[in-house]
Design goal:
Strand content: 15-25%
Radius of gyration: 21 Å
Number of helices: 14
CATH topology of the largest domain: TIM Barrel
Helix content: 40-55%
Number of domains: 2
Order of helices and strands: HEHHEEEEEHHEHEHHEEHHEEEHHEHH
Structural class: alpha/beta
């Protein structure tokens, strides 16, 4: 594999510029072919040495391997613990079934969770890597809006989950929920700042598993100067009617504006430098917008800073 990459990317007549990895297709990010061994250089070492950009699919949706039983070399995430399986991995959901969405999400979590990618960056901190999709636009908007899905929680489960929290976090969470019989109920009409404190405490408790938060925590770390994320395949939006011909068009502009105003504008310059524009064209066509609409929505939402995410940051990632 390493020799093939040298031929395709580093040779004088090479036609390729970078590497794309899609772990849910059936492998671990820490597979020895990628990580290397004591006797053999791996893909990451080659890419770090030559600053070859790597883009990795990183959301809990998309595509996934069809297998129900899979032999995996490297680390996986099982029951929120990183382990090296000593036997083939057995998935709970069959791919070809009524539970295909759950099957994709399960394979993504076990094979591709950001926690697994942090193991890669710990060994190769200067790796030039882009976590495509920023966890997925649904996860992004949950993070931006601090959406708390746990309106009702079994009291025993709730009390066990908050045990490891700090006294401050525990007080925040307990103030947000009221106990009735054996159930904890989330208080209504919280302000966004109150909700943010509760959401972050629940995230630290493991109640919230948000990929966008996990990815952002990685890319903003100074220890990983070449880690990025992108907004490709952003699919949160609405149908709008054209005033000229009454045709319906799918637009992502308003959701992007929310992301820009409530999240991006609050970042430091360094944190902004880690976010890239992306389209995922042609796959975007499957959920609605044309490439022209998608591109124009981004420009309208980001204004002058579209140049930053679409050009300045992207050139740095690609090494242009």
């Amino acid at each position: 594999m390493v020799e093939k990459l040298k031929e395709k990317i580093l040779a004088d007549d090479a036609l390729f510029y970078g590497v794309k990895l899609y772990a849910p297709a059936g492998f671990s990010p820490t597979d020895p072919v990628l990580m290397g061994t004591d006797r053999q250089e791996g893909v990451y070492a080659l890419c770090q040495q030559h600053q070859i950009p790597i883009t990795v699919h990183n959301s809990n949706a998309g595509f996934a391997c069809f297998s129900t039983i899979l032999e995996v070399r490297g680390d996986v995430l099982l029951n929120n613990n990183i382990v090296k399986p000593d036997k083939p991995l057995r998935f709970d959901y069959r791919f070809f079934s009524r539970h295909i969405s759950e099957a994709i999400e399960e394979r993504a979590k076990k094979l591709n969770h950001p926690q697994l990618w942090e193991l890669v960056l710990q060994k190769y901190p200067n790796l030039k890597i882009n976590f495509a999709h920023f966890g997925g636009s649904g996860q992004i908007m949950e993070y931006v809006n601090y959406t708390i899905k746990f309106k009702e929680v079994d009291a025993d489960i709730f009390e066990d989950a908050i045990v490891p929290l700090s006294a401050e976090d525990k007080a925040v969470v307990l103030a947000a929920y009221k106990k009735k019989k054996n159930t904890m109920y989330l208080r209504e009409n919280m302000t966004i700042s109150e909700r943010a404190k509760v959401w972050n405490a629940l995230y630290r408790a493991g109640f919230v598993d948000n990929w966008s938060k996990a990815i952002f925590d990685l890319v903003k770390k100074p220890e990983y100067p070449n880690a990025y994320t992108d907004l490709s395949c952003f699919s949160e939006g609405m149908l709008i009617e054209s005033p000229e011909d009454q045709k319906l068009t799918f637009s992502i502009k308003e959701e992007l504006k929310t992301f820009k105003n409530h999240f991006f504008d609050k970042l430091s310059d360094y944190e902004k430098s880690k976010i890239l524009y992306g389209s995922d064209f042609y796959l975007t066509q499957f959920f609605g917008p044309t490439l022209k609409q998608y591109f124009e929505d981004f420009k309208a939402a980001f204004g002058d800073e579209f140049e930053l995410i679409a050009n300045v940051n992207t050139k740095r990632f690609l090494g242009f």
